[in-house]
Amino acid sequence: MNVTKMVRVAAVATLAIGAVAGCAKEDTGGTTEGGVTLVKSGALTTCTHLPYAPFQSKDDSGKVVGFDVALIDLVATRLKVKQEIVDTPFEGIKSGADLNSGKCDVAAAGMTITDERKKVLDFSDPYFDATQALATQTGKEVKTLEELAGKRLGVQGGTTGEEYIKTQVQEKSLKIEVVSYKDLAALQQALATNQVVAAVNDLPVWNEYIKANPGKVVVAAGFDTGEQYGFAVKKGNAELLKEVNAALTAARGDGSYDKIYAEWIGEKPAA
Q: 3-state DSSP call for residue 44?
């Protein structure tokens, strides 16, 4: 092959590579007017884990809705973008892996603020006071964990509810078999099909389930663990965190937070 022909072949190859690269070009993100950098231009991308009604779940049309979704919509509106939701395992959310990898800008997953999680995530101001609750099938109520000795108790893996129950079982030397399920749907199915005699998760979650399945399940006991939910951003993302907190503050001030709370959670407890 002569030199001229080699140059022509090289030129064609270069153009071909450029064309392929052009086809594979990805959205490299963008910056809002307020200086907030987003992983996708024109969108506030939210990582969550479905289902977790009333905080986030799909409605009959397949749209993701809920308390968390509505509050993050306020942040998106503030940034003049649309919210886009990514359903992803909770482990990747609470570990910070999803935010660090650029899968999303913010995490909204009914997530309790804990000191351990603060090491890998930056949390917003608290937006919800959570209480753990123990649910049983109707007619099989118990009032204490001690009554579950020798029985199976279900929890959702990776949650503060799981941590609380395992700590109680260990500290009180309770003879309870704690069974962890990958998500809320699996936990609720286990309770409904007698795989476990009781199950623990956040109170609003059980209230929502009871509304959807009247007469089948009851909240038998509650545990005031003093938990609070927070939205999370990548460690060091001060600009976005500032906007999230500003949206929450504005919502509490103009009454929109109360309206969203009433729609998705119900009557607010007395202050």
A: strand
